[in-house]
Predict the structure.
Amino acid sequence: MTESADVPSRSVSLPETAGETSAERPWPVRHLSPKIRDFIARMPPVWVEGQVLNAKRWKHMVFLTLRDTDEQMSLKVTLPASEVDALGTPFVDGARVVVHAKPSWWVKNGDLQMAGDAVQSVGLGDLLARVEALKEALAAEGLFDPGRKRDLPLVPRRVGLVCANQGDAEHDVIENAQRRWPAVQFTVRRVTVQGARCVPETTAAIAELDADPDVDVIVVARGGGSFEDLLPFSDESLVRAAARCGTPLVSAIGHEKDAPLLDLVADYRASTPTDAGKRIVPDAHVERTLIAELIRDASAAVAHHVARESDGLAQFLSRPVLAHPARMLDPFAEHLARARQASGRALMSILSTADAATRELAASLRALSPQGTLDRGYAIARDASGAVVTTASALSPGTALHLRFASGSADADVTQVRPSP
């Protein structure tokens, strides 16, 4: 739908193009606004999706604001009332529609509107298909792998809670957690949990709590709702923000039948905010009972071990070898005495045999000794060099000899040599 306006005749003093304008030679509004209209008029029609807001009927037209489902952006749209009536579904705030429209610029007030000529409702099946396609894509990237999920701390120092500005989710989480573990502390970030503001506010709250070093676990809680109400928690940017979170994250968005994609990427999926409050902290009474049982079991185990070792020690001490340790040496003493006697006899036998052999060798030695020959009346003659003279032909008259007898010696000179015949 366009607004007709006469383009004023161009003054010769006006700049031809926008680049030629200056503070001294500007374009008047009546000159610029038609140019904007003409430029926008060249844009083709487009199918655009959004949420209906502030729909109003006037005669045969319906005026509404088409709001983006994730960001704080909107466009004014006009539609024929007949097209709206043909939908067959209530045209109420929050309904998701797809509009076929062409941009139109209103020259008089500088207003941009989308002049629509067709509208379609975004059905539940379409939304489910989109969520399923995003689920498959994120799963292929590994964002839902069990190996990425971290264990929740046994006793968190502080819990970061992202919840609605008003609602029972905050009460359910805090009440059930403090009932089980009274010392637990909370840092609460209240956000819008549906509509266009949900995704940016929830993403910012998760990032803020993740940056807090005192927060050990983050809980994102909402008290259920329709599939359309929970769609922001299947938004890709929110799911990726949860995947980047370095602090263990608990998703407590709805009830058992509700399963947004945030549940799949979270480290733990709680069926309800109440379940989340019970899961993030242990039960103090149960833990005290368990500690008492462990102390009792440990004491009984130690007492049993000491008693068993005492009985064993008493049995060892009652044995004869420990009652009279010296008796253990009696058999070895007798064996040692017999060994000493046997070794003495063996030594005497060895010495007797050695003495007899020595005597025999001594007799043989004396028999072979030159001294034995001398004792029988023979003498040994040596020349001046000390060599033994064995033949008379080696001598000549006047040769000096040294004679060795069995007892004593004498020097002599040769007077005559008689060789053997």
